[in-house]
Amino acid sequence: xxxxxxxxxxxxxxxxxxxxxxxxxxxxxxxxxxxxxxxxxxxxxxxxxxxxxxxxxxxxxxxxxxxxxxxxxxxxxxxxxxxxxxxxxxxxxxxxxxxxxxxxxxxxxxx
Amino acid sequence: xxxxxxxxxxxxxxxxxxxxxxxxxxxxxxxxxxxxxxxxxxxxxxxxxxxxxxxxxxxxxxxxxxxxxxxxxxxxxxxxxxxxxxxxxxxxxxxxxxxxxxxxxxxxxxxx
Lengths: 111, 112
Prior knowledge:
The complex is a heterodimer of chains A (about 110) and B (about 110). Chain A has no helices and eleven strands. By secondary structure, chain A is mainly beta. In chain A, strands 2, 4, 5, 6, 9, 10 and 11 form a seven-stranded mixed sheet that branches. In chain A, strand 5 (about 40-50) and strand 6 form a beta hairpin. Chain A is globular, with a radius of gyration of 13 Å. The model of chain A has no long low-confidence stretch (mean pLDDT about 95). Chain B is globular and about 45 Å long. In chain B, strands 2, 4, 5, 9, 10 and 11 form a six-stranded mixed sheet that branches. Chain B is an all-beta fold and about 110 residues long. Chains A and B meet through strand 5 and strand 10 of A and strand 5, strand 9 and strand 10 of B.
């Protein structure tokens, strides 16, 4: 059974803190993605990676960075959290058939 | 114009009803189409891919109309467990890499 896990289900941080969101997949997928989901806006792509140490900006990369040191792990970093980064963060992975498998999500609240 | 547009609903239907959702997309070069299902406070999961010839999976039927750039999802004999948000998804090229563009979803509520 395919599995994508995220390090936290719920997270509360203060403005200005550095935040790390971790995602691990066990399907040996090449591609990994980070989205945020907000009411009325749907899923928006932040960054994606198609190989180890490779990354590409999505539609809303500002304020975020990513790291992919190993094939199974893709990390999202908020360098200095702001209140407008309060959101649901979803990680996904896929092989080359485009079907994306999602993790359970991390609800981040920035105070 | 949004790349993928859906009626947000909610669609309120009784058990056993047939319900249909449409979704329009703006990029005529899109080649791959999907419906994902998202339960409340859960992650999206693939419901079905949408093929040019249309496809059926049990009570669910998906259709693609390339000329009008829309896809549809038909659910027959609705169950309470069908209550969820249905996301229309199409592919797009981003600097040579495939990515998926998600609609904001159509909410379905099936009542007893």
